[in-house]
Amino acid sequence: MATNKDRIQYLMLFIIVLLLSGCDSGDKNKKWNSTGKELSTTEVSDKVTITIGDIDPDTPTNRMKKILPLAQLLARELGWHESRVKIRIVKSIEDATLMIKNNQIDLLMDSSFPILLVQKNSDTKIILELPVMGKRTYKTLFITSKSSAIKSLENLKGKTIALQERYSTSGYLLPAFHIISNGYNLTDVTTLSGGDTMPTDSIGYIFSGDEENTLLLIRKDLVAAGVLSSHDYQQLSEQTKNDIVVIAETQEIPRKFAAIRSGVDEALQEKIIHILLSINDSDRINMGKANSWKWRFVPLDEQSRTGIKAIENMMLVLNPLLENRVE
To answer: Residue 156, Cα to own-chain centre: how many angstroms?
Structure first.
């Protein structure tokens, strides 16, 4: 029977294979580059422009296509030529932060954790909330195989779980905070040296990269459990849902925010907010025809502000794990 040490070594080898082979579709395996200038048919140097930014290290071209109809709508409603509303996709939070500081990104939309990380390290302010799948909030579910003996977080001590990405809201922030706030320690399995074993009083973790890899690791019994967002769980097939069981849930927080660079003219900021809030069902239908997301924005309210404070508290608690990660 394989020991826990053997299991960890095999797990690390399996993860390397996953990362090298890739489990995603689309343009993940193509050379990544900035798509920030691809929308401009002419150079506009004497007029104000707006650059919409997003973070996607894997499929930047696909992400740009999703945002393009929104950029076109924004230009049209502002009475601008389309070339004056640009899109720049970056591959990391560090890149987004630097480009905002350098006035290269003006409007950033992402899940709540990355938005607040960028805000912490640059001069931006959150202006709107974005519901996803008709819901403003979501949570993280801890899942395991239905045949597993794991029934609670307590059963995970000394074992390894699959989180998703270090700067993921549902794949890291929520589950890591939930584990620590319930009195458990977290150990990054990748920091263990060859002779080390998992501390029996700690819950180990690795990053799977995405929900598909998490489910695969659980299916192959390489991790004791994993995490999925409540949105991702809803989209699973009934067969997959029947194969897993939820053993814990985190609190709910806002799903997504839009933030604007503080240096953008205030009158223009107000116009942008008004336009985004005015997007109607007809607009969304047209954007859907262009294979875009059906963008929906709502004003910040007390629920938004409470959610932001909750996320800031989570970031404070997790700061020892996050420090030196974002420059």
So the answer is: 25
In the chain, ranges of CATH 3.40.190.10 domains? 4-22+140-250, 50-133+255-301
* Residues 297-326 pLDDT 10s: 999 999 999 999 999 999 999 988 776 454
Place of tokens 């849930």: 249
Number of other CB atoms surrounding residue 91 within 10 Å: 15
Query: Would you state the CATH architecture of domain 4-22+140-250?
Result: 3-Layer(aba) Sandwich (3.40)
Superfamily of domain 50-133+255-301: Periplasmic binding protein-like II (3.40.190.10)
Phi-psi region of 165 (alpha: psi -120 to 50; beta: other; left: phi over 0): beta
Residue pLDDT, tens place only, 12-56 = 555 555 554 544 444 444 444 455 444 333 444 458 999 999 999
Model-level pTM?
Answer: 0.84
